[in-house]
Amino acid sequence: VPPPTTGPEFETVTVEERVELSFTKAAELLRQSEKRNADAILRDEALTGFQMHRGAIACGDRSVLQGRSLTEIAPTSGEALVLAADGVGDRDNIGAIFRDGAAFGAQGVLLGQHCHDPLYRKSIRSSMGYTLSVPFLHCVLPSTLRMLRRDHGYSVLGTVCRPGARPLPSIRRTERMVVVVGNEFRGISPEVEAECDTLAFIP
């Protein structure tokens, strides 16, 4: 997966003195930022008293990543692949969803209620930075999926771990498709499952 090339504007980058390469990369990110008042700060662990990052951490404006429209996440024409998370609570799993979405060329990620924050620092790290570049939208998932199916021709594939579901390799991708993953313990909710055209499992 290539590294993300877009993301938020950085205001501050804090880097440990021992991580010269990270500082070089951070300084380059600041030069690329449109914010003219961005500062690079060289610090060590004395700043916090414990190791809270692995060499570099940035502070940016998250508002530029929020407030997306649904059509930015799920285009209404042409081919489109969208991932949807239904109550995914683990920060690493949220990051993995974005990383996988980038690998498979997803247009964006729909986040249902009770999903963990994709901009939490551990989620960003698990995503390899893709939570900063893959568009996402918080929504009420059942009604959003219903609207995408009814008005824009999306098919909805729900992933489950139980008998009766089809093996994933047997399912052909449609022109516009949403793939839904559920909570780590409960899976997808009955309300979301009711909006799925097909249920699949990974054999």
Keywords for this entry:
single chain, 6 helices, seven-stranded parallel beta sheet, alpha/beta, 10 strands, 203 residues, three-stranded mixed beta sheet, 26% helix
Q: Per the principal axes of the C-alpha atoms, what is the gross shape?
A: globular
Order of helices and strands: EHEEHEHEHEHEEEHE
What fraction of the residues are assigned to beta strands by DSSP? 15-25%
What is the total tally of β strands?
10
Structural account:
The chain is α/β, with parallel strands linked by helices. Helices cover 26% and strands 23% of the residues. It contains six helices and ten strands. It has helices at 20-32, 70-73, 91-103, 121-126, 141-152, 190-193; strands spanning 10-15, 39-42, 56-60, 80-86, 108-111, 136-138, 155-159, 166-167, 176-182, 198-201. The strands form two sheets. The protein has a seven-stranded parallel sheet with strand order 6-5-4-9-7-10-8. Strands 2-1-3 form a three-stranded mixed sheet, covered by helices on one side. It is globular, with a radius of gyration of 19 Å. The relative contact order is 0.16.
